[in-house]
Amino acid sequence: MNKKTLTITSFALFSLFFGAGNLILPPLLGFKSGDSWWLVTLGFCLSAVLIPILGILAHARLQGTLFDFAKKVSPTFSLVYCYLIYAIAIALPSPRTASVTHEMAIQPLFDSSSLLTSLIYFALVFVFAINRSKVLDIVGKLLTPGILIILLLIVATALGTLDFDFSTSELKHPLSDGILEGYQTFDAIGAVVVGAVIIISINIKDKTASYETKKDLIRKAGFWAGLGLLLVYAGLILTGALFSDVFASDITRTTLLSGISTETLGSTATLFLSLLVSLACFTTAVGIVTGTSDFVRARFNDSNVAYRITALFGCLLGVLIGQFNVGYIIAVALPALMFIYPITIILILLNVVPEKWASPAVFRWVVITTIVFSIPDFLGTLGFLVPYHYLEWLPLAQFQLGWILPAVVAFMVGNIK
């Protein structure tokens, strides 16, 4: 492993993580948090940086596919979990990248339809996905540096020109609000999906690399990508907090980001922002479609036909769902996230702890417990009346995180038994 390979892999990993949600969520979160921006940043980075990077560390240990994350529960459960993850990924965050690109990068410059944007956008995604062996190099060498430069320009200008005066926070529970908003980045799901993309890309580039060499490369790349995400998220949240008195309180996520860009970059903001949004969203869509296609190919005996059909289907689905506005896609995603995210977090953690503490029995105990105690939050987001008074004795239940303590207890009891 040389420094060039590490740099390219780190950049590629950062870029595959950093997409639509990562760009539009932090500024509004900071805007609402005001003087509590640091608490929100802590919560957001717990779910959108720490957990995803632990997911990459788990991939470094497993060096397999998403199926390996949950197979200790049971092969059947793992297969169902994989299909759920990939279905959610290509149905929600992937189309959302096209929707964000249209609203923020295309619509301000051209009077064109969202359908035309989605068609061109996912045609390019399909081209990248088909050229599978070049994905890591193109994303790592060309696209990520552009994303980072523009982000740093926006954040550095805001921090260098504004007074550090904050309004009073609108959020009652800034820490837990930050954690839950971090769900919307899909970064924990991204970790288990794009981590597999990185593994396969490394194997394609160097078939002779040893297990330890690949493990070292993935772990170091995960650290640098995580550090990049941490700095960018903190910068965007702080920037949003500094603008809390500048814009109307009911401003949307995309309008706020556009406004901040105009205030910091002036007349060139539209062009810079269009480029930033397009690059950030595009790399994530490529990662999702490629990861999903890799999984289906593996299920069909490494069939390239299955890979191409899946990539085409993922892009067509992206075109259709990409017609909805960003706010609608985020709202629709919430129930799915409240159910699948706790399970994903638990599987990541179980695959990181020493194996002597994560036997198949422990996996089953903890995952089943997590599913059971996640159901009230899931039903609540669907509008069903949930008898919370039965669970109010649980710490964190009022923050929609009531599954955490039961999962910890299940982990301890499972190990004791």
From TrEMBL:
Keywords: Amino-acid transport, Cell membrane, Membrane, Transmembrane, Transmembrane helix, Transport. Pfam families: Branch_AA_trans (PF05525). Its main location: membrane. The chain crosses the membrane at residues 37-60, 72-92, 112-130, 142-162, 182-202, 223-243, 271-293, 305-322, 328-353, 365-390, 396-416. It is found in: Cell membrane. It is a multi-pass membrane protein. The keyword NAD does not apply. The keyword Membrane applies. Belongs to the branched chain amino acid transporter family. NCBIfam families: livcs. This is Branched-chain amino acid transport system II carrier protein.
